[in-house]
Automatic annotation (TrEMBL):
Protein name: Sugar ABC transporter permease
Cellular-component GO terms for this entry: plasma membrane
CDD domains: TM_PBP2 (cd06261)
Source organism per UniProt: Gracilibacillus boraciitolerans JCM 21714
Transmembrane as UniProt keyword: yes
Length: 273
């Protein structure tokens, strides 16, 4: 009984956090079913009648084209980042050579560079190589900016893997490439989940590079598509809420599926520096 009483403050705190984080999402969903007039007159009330007009508007505005552009860019970028970062981290974490630490420090320095300071050079480079207003032109910078943090996370995980596994494989004649794919990489599941979710959320919500490097509805991503709800003198708030509701579903789905691995991965990756 005493333990139950001591745990009451924690339960109260957990419920307060749940309400604080869940209430904005609930308001967003409820607002998406309101008309513009109803939102202006009673913004905090329950919808008088659940109207799907805003969701029909999304279909008319080619919302799902923006949605799938964001999905394509995010999935491809995250997949390539996982492969490149894991392969780059293997020699840094498991091999001993003179440039081991300097290379790792270069990736750490990459975290210190404000990405928006590179916007103009990337815009010029994208124009010169003919990738302006294309999804590939977005994928390149997204991969580059995601690599430093991803390499650091993978490196810390690989340092935690017992060297006995590697030594046993080498005795059996296993090459470094086979050792990485057959033994090391399967053990990186928590790190892969951490890197995937962290970068997916960032890329899915990225706005500035998508705004500068694209110039048509054909290549616009979801954050760019939301601008269509902003008029010269008014803003369609219920329409924006409907778009945000649908746009947040992939993030919520992926996070709920992998949330345990994310927490485990972040905790394990911070053990050593």
């Amino acid at each position: 009984m005493a333990k139950l009483i001591k745990g009451v403050p924690l339960y109260v705190l957990a419920i307060a956090i749940l309400i604080g984080t869940g209430l904005p999402f609930l308001i967003m969903v409820l607002t998406s079913f309101k008309t513009q007039m109803e939102f202006m007159t009673t913004p905090w009330s329950w919808p008088e009648s659940f109207s799907f007009r805003n969701y029909n508007l999304l279909v008319e505005m080619e919302f799902f084209g923006y949605f799938f552009n964001s999905l394509i860019v995010s999935v491809i970028s995250v997949f390539v980042v996982i492969i490149l970062a894991a392969m780059a981290s293997y020699p840094i974490a498991r091999l001993t050579f003179r440039l081991n630490r300097p290379i790792f420090l270069l990736f750490m320095i990459g975290l210190m560079i404000p990405i928006h300071t590179t916007l103009v050079p990337i815009f010029i480079l994208t124009n010169k190589v003919g990738l302006y207003d294309s999804l590939i032109g977005l994928i390149g910078p997204y991969i580059a900016f995601a690599l430093p943090i991803s390499v650091i996370i993978f490196t810390q995980f690989m340092k935690e893997i017992p060297k006995e596994l590697e030594e046993s494989a080498k005795i059996d004649g296993c090459s470094h490439l086979r050792l990485f794919w057959n033994i090391i990489f399967p053990l990186l599941t928590p790190a892969v989940a951490t890197v995937a979710i962290y970068n997916f959320i960032h890329i899915w919500n990225e706005f500035i590079f998508a705004l500068v490097l694209t110039n048509s509805d054909r290549t616009a991503t979801l954050p760019i598509g939301l601008r269509e709800f902003y008029g010269e003198f008014s803003v369609n708030v219920p329409g924006i809420m409907a778009a945000l509701t649908l746009g947040s579903l992939p993030l919520l789905l992926v996070y709920f599926v992998a949330q345990e691995r994310i927490v485990t991965g972040l905790a394990a990756g911070s053990v050593k520096g």
